[in-house]
Design brief:
6-stranded mixed beta sheet, 14 helices, disordered C terminus, 369 residues, alpha/beta, 41% helix, 13% strand
C-alpha cells in the first residue's frame, strides 16, 4: 500500500542525539579522545575566565566546534554556525541539545580569541600527543622534519613600498574602490615592501619557476613509526626558516638517547648538519649533490637505517596534504603570525586525532578510553 506524503509536526521528541548517532560512527572515538584531552585543560580554562559575570561559550564546546570545522572542511565560522543549527551530528559532537540556541558568529570568533591568548592550541596538541604516547604509538628514536608554504590571507595589491611617497604606477583603468595596479618594471622585495593587509606575511616562492606569493612557513616534526606529528612551528617565510625551525624543534625532543632526523635536500647545509651532530642527532638528510658535494657522507649513508629513513620521511608530505586539503590551510583564513600559528598547531592536533583513531582500528588490542 502506498503511503501518504504528509508531514505532521511533532511537539515532543523522545530520541536523544546520543541515540541518533550510530555506535560505529567514525566521530565517536575522536570525540572520546578530544574529551579526554579537554579534561586535562580544565584548570587552564579556569584561568582564562572571570569568577563572576555573564556566562560565555564553554571553551570545551568552542574547541569541539573548531575541530568539526577542521575535520569537515567548513570554510568559515558563519557556515559552521549554520551547520550547527540543523546538523544533528554536529550538535551531538559539540555537546548541544536539540533546543539549544546557536551562538552568533561574532560572539563565537570573540571567544576564540580568548583561547588564542591562552595558548590553548599548544596545550591541546600536547594532551592529544600524550594519549598517543600512552598507547605506545610514538617512536623515540627516528624522526622527520619538513616545512611548507602557507599562503597568507592577503593579495598582491597590498604588498606596497614602505615609503608611502613611492607608490606603484597605476594602470589606465584604475577607477573605483578596487583599482587595477600594474607592477611591471618595479623591483619588489621584502626589504622595501610590506603588506598593508597582513604585515607579518612575506613574499616567497615554493621553488624555481613558480610565482611568488605572500605566505608564512609551517614546520612539522613527525615520528617515523606511525607518522604522528610530535612538534609544530610557524614562522615568517624568510630564506633559512626551515633549517632554523628544524633546529628548534629537534632541540626540544625529549630524552637523552641519540636519535635520527630525516629531511629533504633543502636541509643539506654545512651549518645545519654540524649543529645536528653537536646535539647528538644523526642527520639522515637526503644528499644534494647537484653541482656540489653533499655534506652527508658515507659515515651516514652506508648504514641500512639511512635508506629506511629516506622512505619514511615521505610520510610528512601526507600530513601536509591532509592539513592543506582537509584542514583548509592551503590558503590561510587568518591574519598575523600568532593566529596562523594557532590554527596550524590546532589542525596538526586534529590530524593526530584522526591518525590515532585509524591506528586503533587496525590494532584490536588498542581501546579508546
Amino acid at each position: 500500500m502506498r503511503g501518504d506524503d504528509e508531514q505532521q509536526l511533532g511537539v515532543f521528541s523522545y530520541v536523544s542525539p546520543e541515540q541518533r548517532i550510530p555506535q560505529d560512527h567514525p566521530l565517536r572515538p575522536v570525540r572520546a579522545m578530544a574529551d579526554e584531552a579537554l579534561r586535562e585543560l580544565k584548570a587552564r580554562f579556569g584561568k582564562l575566565y572571570a569568577k563572576a559575570g555573564r556566562p560565555s561559550i564553554a571553551p570545551e564546546k568552542l574547541l569541539r566546534a573548531l575541530l568539526l570545522q577542521v575535520l569537515y572542511s567548513v570554510r568559515s565560522e558563519r557556515m559552521l554556525m549554520e551547520q550547527l543549527d540543523y546538523n544533528l551530528l554536529f550538535r551531538w559532537f559539540v555537546g548541544l541539545n536539540m533546543d539549544d540556541a546557536i551562538w552568533d558568529v561574532t560572539v563565537f570568533t570573540k571567544n576564540r580569541q580568548r583561547l588564542l591568548d591562552g595558548d590553548i592550541a599548544d596545550a591541546f596538541f600536547a594532551a592529544v600527543l600524550k594519549q598517543a604516547r600512552q598507547r605506545s604509538l610514538l617512536s623515540d628514536e627516528h624522526f622527520t622534519v619538513d616545512g611548507t608554504l602557507l599562503e597568507a590571507w592577503a593579495g598582491q595589491k597590498s604588498f606596497s613600498r614602505v615609503d608611502d611617497d613611492h607608490q606603484p604606477p597605476p594602470a589606465e583603468t584604475s577607477e573605483g574602490s578596487n583599482p587595477t595596479v600594474s607592477f611591471h618594471g618595479e623591483r619588489r622585495s621584502n626589504r622595501t615592501h610590506c603588506s598593508t593587509t597582513d604585515p607579518d606575511a612575506m613574499l616567497a616562492r615554493k621553488s624555481r619557476g613558480t610565482g611568488a606569493v605572500l605566505a608564512y612557513r609551517g614546520h612539522l616534526l613527525i615520528e617515523n613509526r606511525n607518522g604522528l606529528v610530535v612538534s609544530t612551528l610557524t614562522t615568517r617565510a624568510y630564506g633559512s626558516a626551515e633549517r632554523d625551525a628544524a633546529l628548534l624543534m629537534a632541540e626540544a625532543l625529549p630524552g637523552t638517547n641519540r636519535v635520527t632526523l630525516g629531511a629533504d635536500k633543502g636541509y643539506d647545509a654545512h651549518d645545519f648538519i654540524a649543529e645536528l651532530r653537536h646535539m647528538q642527532i644523526t642527520p639522515h638528510i637526503a644528499q644534494n649533490d647537484t653541482n656540489r658535494r653533499s655534506v652527508v657522507d658515507e659515515r651516514t649513508t652506508r648504514h641500512a637505517g639511512y635508506q629506511v629513513s629516506q622512505k619514511k620521511r615521505k610520510r610528512i608530505e601526507e600530513v601536509f596534504g591532509w592539513m592543506k586539503s582537509v584542514g583548509l590551510l592551503r590558503k590561510g583564513r587568518h591574519r598575523g603570525l600568532e593566529r596562523v600559528g594557532w590554527m596550524f598547531t590546532f589542525t596538526a592536533a586534529a590530524y593526530n586525532l584522526v591518525r590515532i583513531r585509524n591506528l586503533m582500528r587496525r590494532g584490536p588490542h588498542l581501546q579508546c578510553s
